[in-house]
Amino acid sequence: DGWVPTPAAGFLSEYLAAAGFKPIFVRDRDGLPAEPAAATALVACVGLRALPATVWRQLEDHVRAGGGLVVCGPITPTAFEGTDLLPLREVSSSVAVGAAPRDCTREFLGAWSRRYQLEPLEEHPVLSGLPFLPTGRQDIGVLQILEPTPAGRAILRYQTPAGLQPAVSTPALVLAAYGAGRVAVLASPVDWGMPSNWCLWNRLGEY
């Protein structure tokens, strides 16, 4: 019906394809695709709003049987009240930082000093080979404050550069087992690294 996936879903589709998956897009209200259970190894929710109870039951059965679920922000605070699938006790608030520098290049070259970064809390196979500060930067401008359940295992947290407010050090990536499967929650949108339209279009003549 002319439905077009969001830009964030497009980003995630590219990542999954590069990792060897064959992504299939479905509306969140429609639930899992009508394919054999073995064909759906991983379900990714790009942003999480309230889902119908039938979809939550599908997801619970999928993960309990050995499947995977990845949830990325933004997460509506009440979206997971009807399930114990997500290792979250609370999603309390959102943080968005932005600036409109006028010196032509700083929004690209110095963005890391005005954006949140990621810091590993422990060694974990999920993090193997990923570059963190000072080798690599993430420049996260939008995040959510999460409180994991006791079953949730935080392996990444946010790191705040000096002078940036508000200071945030809450979990960024939370993992948990659920039955024979696994769940991961990333407390930031997939497309957090996209420069805003004003940043590009307003600079076109200057570059």
Task: Walk me through the structure.
The chain has 207 residues and is of the alpha/beta class. The chain is built from 4 helices and 8 strands; from the N terminus they run αβαββαβββββα. The strands form 2 sheets. It has a 6-stranded mixed β-sheet. A two-stranded antiparallel sheet has the order 3-5. The mean pLDDT is 84.
Give, in spatial order, the strands making up the sheet with the most strands: 1-2-8-7-6-4
Radius of gyration from the alpha-carbon trace, in angstroms: 18 Å
Secondary-structure-derived class:
alpha/beta
Q: What is the number of helical segments per DSSP (H or I, 4+ residues)? A: 4
Arithmetic mean pLDDT: 84
Spans where pLDDT lies below 50 across 5 or more residues: none
- Tell me, briefly, the overall form: globular
- How many DSSP-defined strands? 8
> Could you tell me the strand content as a percent range?
25-35%
Helix content: 10-25%
The biggest sheet, with number of strands, parallel, antiparallel or mixed sense and barrel status, is:
6 strands, mixed
What string gives the helices and strands in order? Answer: HEHEEHEEEEEH
User: Distance between the terminal alpha carbons, to the nearest Å?
Assistant: 40 Å
